Amino acid sequence: MNKFYGTGVAIITPFHADGQVDYDALGRVINHLIDGGVEYLVSLGTTGESATLSNEERKQVWAFTSGVVKGRVGLVAGIGGNNTHEVVEQVKQFDTTGYDAILSASPHYNKPTQEGIYQHYKAIAQAATLPVILYNVPSRTGSNVNADTVVRLAHDFKNIIGIKEAGGNFDQINQIMRDKPADFLMISGDDPVTLPMMALGGVGVISVTGNVLPRQTSDMVRLCLDGNYKAAQIIHSNLIDFTRLMFVEGSPAGAKTALKHLGLCEDHLRLPLVQVSAGTAGKIAAELKKFI
Description:
Elements: E1 6-10, H1 23-35, E2 40-43, H2 55-69, E3 74-78, H3 84-93, E4 101-105, H4 114-127, E5 132-136, H5 138-141, H6 147-156, E6 160-165, H7 170-179, E7 185-188, H8 194-199, E8 204-207, H9 214-225, H10 229-247, H11 253-261, H12 278-288
C-alpha cells in the first residue's frame, strides 16, 4: 500500500458564480497538485463540499477527475454518509475506473454506538471492491471512532487498509499504533499535527493546506518518511500561520481564497458555506506571498 505513503490532498471543488461545478478550474487544480509532487488525491472528501453535490454531480466529478489524473498519481474517492444502506449502494454503484481506494467518514449526526460504527464499516467493507480507508473526524460527525473499534475493523477486514485520523487524541493514536496490524496505515487528517503523528509511525497526511502549497506539504512529509525530522520541522514551522488561516473561517473557504490568488479558481462555495471575510482574505494573501 505504498501508494498511500506520503501526501494526499483532499481536492476542493471549484464552482462558477452560479453554483455550477467549474470543470476547467478543477482540471487546473488537479494539475497544480500533481505538478506539486503529491502522491495521491482524494476526490469529494469533506473539503470537496460533497455534502452539497447531487448524486449525478458526484459521478461527473469522479469521472472527470479520473480522466484528468490518468493514473499519474493515486486516486481515492470519498463516499460516506449517515444512512448505511445508502452508502453501501453508492459503493456498489461506484465506477472504480482509475481509483485505488475509498475514503469513508464515520456516520454523522446519528451518534451511533461503537457497535453501530463497526457494523456500518463492516457493511461497506463487504460491499467494496476497492480498499477502504476509515475516516475519524469527531468535530464534524459528533462521535468518535475509538481505538478498540479501529483495531477490531483493521483485524477483521483485510480490505480496510488504514484510517484518516482527525480526532487529535494522541492517547487514542498511541493505542491504535500499538495494536493495529503491521500493514494498517495511520494517516493524519489534520494538517497541524501531521509531523508529530508521523513521528509515532504515521505514513503521511490527507491535507487541506496541500491544495494551495502542495510542494511544501509533500516535501515536509517526505522528510518525515525519511526520518529527517529536523529539516521537516523547519517547513512545519513555516506553514503554521498559513495553515491556521486555512481553517479560521472554515474549510474549504480559506483554501479557495488562496487558490483564487494563485489564479487557479474562484472562491465560490455552496451554501451553507460562505467566503471568508475581507480581513481574513487579506491575511491569506499576505501570508501566501511568503511562499510564491
